[in-house]
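Dear H.,

Thanks for agreeing to be a second pair of eyes. The structure we're designing against is below in token form, covering all 132 positions.
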């Protein structure tokens, strides 16, 4: 999954808003392709706008900061190190809307991810069986 697919699946309304903010109309149902074309036409400014809405932006920045600064979690001076990083149970809350429920797009993204993982496992199993 590339950057454009990840952003489009995780937050379609924000992805559409980025495209529209650059003055473009969306004339395709392929939102990842529209994001790719936006970057091709507008360059770094469009890429930065897309990265700003990336669902994993904070995690990526945190990992990059640790790599550059050489600091690790044990170097953290936080009062509560246990809550420094989100746990799996917190992920559902972090991606919930104001009512505490996942949106249809978020449910679809979870379902798509689950489907892709299951399909990958089935393909891997078939390849292993074939090679025996």
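And this is the sequence the design step returned. I haven't edited it by hand at all.
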């Amino acid at each position: 999954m590339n950057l454009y697919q990840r952003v489009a699946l995780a937050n379609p309304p924000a992805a559409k808003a980025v495209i529209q903010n650059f003055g473009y109309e969306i004339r395709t149902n392929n939102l990842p392709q529209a994001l790719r074309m936006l970057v091709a036409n507008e360059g770094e400014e469009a890429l930065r706008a897309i990265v700003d809405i990336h669902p994993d932006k904070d995690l990526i920045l945190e990992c990059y900061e640790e790599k550059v600064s050489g600091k690790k979690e044990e170097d953290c001076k936080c009062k509560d190190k246990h809550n420094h990083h989100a746990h799996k149970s917190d992920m559902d809350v972090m991606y919930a809307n104001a009512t505490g429920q996942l949106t249809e797009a978020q449910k679809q993204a979870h379902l798509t991810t689950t489907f892709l993982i299951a399909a990958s496992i089935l393909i891997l199993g078939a390849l292993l069986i074939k090679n025996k």
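Two observations from my side: Residues 81-97 have pLDDT under 50 and may be disordered. The chain has seven helices and no strands.

Warmly,
E.
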